[in-house]
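Protein in question reproduced for absentees:

***
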Amino acid sequence: MPTVSVIMPAYNAARYIETAITSVLRQTYTDWELIVVDDCATDGTADIIHRLAAQDTRIVFLRNAVNRGVSYTRNYAISQARGQWIAFLDSDDLWREDKLEKQLALTQKHPDGVLFFTASGFITFDDQPLRYVMPAPEQVTYRDLLRRNLLSCSSVLVKREVMAQVKMARDDMHEDYSAWLTILRQYPCAYGVNEPLLIYRFSPGSKSANRLKSAKMLYRSYRYVGYHVLSAAYMTCRYTVHSVSKRYKIAATK
């Protein structure tokens, strides 16, 4: 059985998915499987996945019967995973080649840990590097995470049995953020590698860039994990201030 199962949902990702998959293939740590799920893409994504899977048996190519969205697709991939650890990588992001090696080394230092993450670097949608780096604190607690999400989904490494119980909930909220909150209610902290081992593709047109849509999704995330209407509204406002400030800093480094 592989040590790590890498989960990659894919929908109309033909422009970037080969770069994302190649960043997994180039990992210095090699005991992994990559589960790529085609969510009924219409742009040639499936052809790229099929070609790369034929070249490396560690790539597992799955398809949804109908378009189901990112939460269902991630959960489906997790249900098929065999690894001790689950790592996530979105089809437009990429990893530095030592990402898994350095994260797994940190798990040895914290055998009690179930949730790990890294700092993030950023590039534009036309592959231009940005100078901004989102740091990773050594530890992040539930209270820290309530203020702002310091765990980029594509940087996370989480115990498979924990993720199988928590699952990604719904696409009308920040499904990954609510999952990390749920986990950190049960466990003391997440552990960070303060190096930009994730390269996140920054897009002004992403769902997180649409401030009103993102705020609504964030509010639903707080409600989902159990907060009252007023508390959820307050935390949404507080988080949005941090988020706007971060995006301004990223954009200013172009």
